[in-house]
Amino acid sequence: MNYMPGTASLIQDIDKKHLVLLRDGRTLIGFLRSIDQFANLVLHQTVERIHVGKKYGDIPRGIFVVRGENVVLLGEIDLEKESDTLLQQVSIEEILEEQRVELQAKQESEKLKVQALKERGLAVPRADTLDEY
Amino acid sequence: MTCKEKDWVVKVEMIQLQSENLDDDYYYQTYYHRLERKQAEEELLGGRNKQEPPKLVTPFIQKVETYNSVVRIAGSLGQVAVSTCYSPRRAIDAVHHALVEEVGEGDTRLQLFLQLLEVEEMQRKMSLATEEQEEAEDEFLQVLCVRKGKKLTARLLPHLAPEQAEKILLTITHHLPFLMKKDAPDEASTSSLGQGVLGCLLLSLFLELAILLGLSKGGTLPESAELPLTMALKNQFGISLLYSLLSRGEGLLSSETPLEAHIGDFETWTDTVFLVARELSQVPKALLVEPLFLPSNLLSLFCRYLDKQTVHHLEAKMDVGGSELAWI
User: Fold this and answer.
1) Counting beta carbons within 10 angstroms of the beta carbon of residue B101, is it exposed (0 to 12), middle (13 to 18) or buried (19 or more)?
2) Does the record bear Transferase in its keywords (chain A) (predicted)?
3) Is A66 inside a domain boundary?
4) Structurally, how many domains does chain A consist of?
5) Domain carrying residue A45
6) What is the ipTM of this complex?
């Protein structure tokens, strides 16, 4: 039954598996159990998925209550198509290591950039937004 | 989620869709109007039974409840958000409502306090403004440190309005020691800047003085004990600037045009000329750098204020051919 024709509502998505992208860059996958008018979410059997390159790793997290303002987007996961992925799943330790390496490389290149800019007498661009990932 | 809970959420969301303010509900309202119009058309065409578009359930509730979504309690410093399921959207304003409304007429202490707050506010704004100005100056200096920056500034100067050009020149002269030090590896580009700068027209004697004063008394670099003036004589751009300024001043003084001088300006001018002459005579000739161009009225300037012997001495220093100049 369509409760509210002409509107978008999460009511239809209850009890389905969802992928939720948060503002701090984390990706959560879980079953959407409850919502409210602010789009606060209750996720069940949640897993935090970390992606590095073509690999990913899942960290089981249990039950999540997510405040609505922190959600960038969410979408339903098609359970049949879920396994048709080109990505390779690896262990948690491995993916965390990969993530650390990637972060380090990024910081190095950022440092070099800042140094180069300084040498040329240009100002360093500042990150004015809170959301950076 | 139970059915009841779902219904509750739906009800809340639906109430949000209907308010007096069209901005809040534009999309939903427009959708519904279009839907109704389409069904009315279909009805006319097809003669079908009139199909009621699924309407919202809650209009009657909406009419009953009107409330202040933000409450100001008397004597409090802030606002309290009253948020019910009927209108959970309204948040506290970030705007600060003044306490002025609560001030009684006989309450002088409170009024004084408010005045004090205003004054502090003003002071804070002033310091912010000067900070910003300093930051802007620093950024400009950074630009000048780079070759491209100098070229761009040189190209830009002829096109600026007089006041803006003056500001730039003032900045350059105030920070001359710093610029000259940074200049060492790259004098070639400074000469292009020099030509741009010196091509600028400076029309007021007062400004000349301001600039020269900056040169003679301006802050020295921490490492060097020299006056900026002395440093200028050893740097091509510096010496060219100096000569050009003196020449301009002399030109203005000797011409008939009335100058807008303030009290003490002429004295400062003569003092500065003496200072330059002294430095020139003291600096050994070997260290003096060839300027970009040598103005012809410098000697006349010195003649005006100094004795013949000194002028001879300076002439030798400046290595003027002597043939083009007329001795007064």
Assistant:
1) exposed
2) no
3) yes
4) 1
5) 6-90
6) 0.76
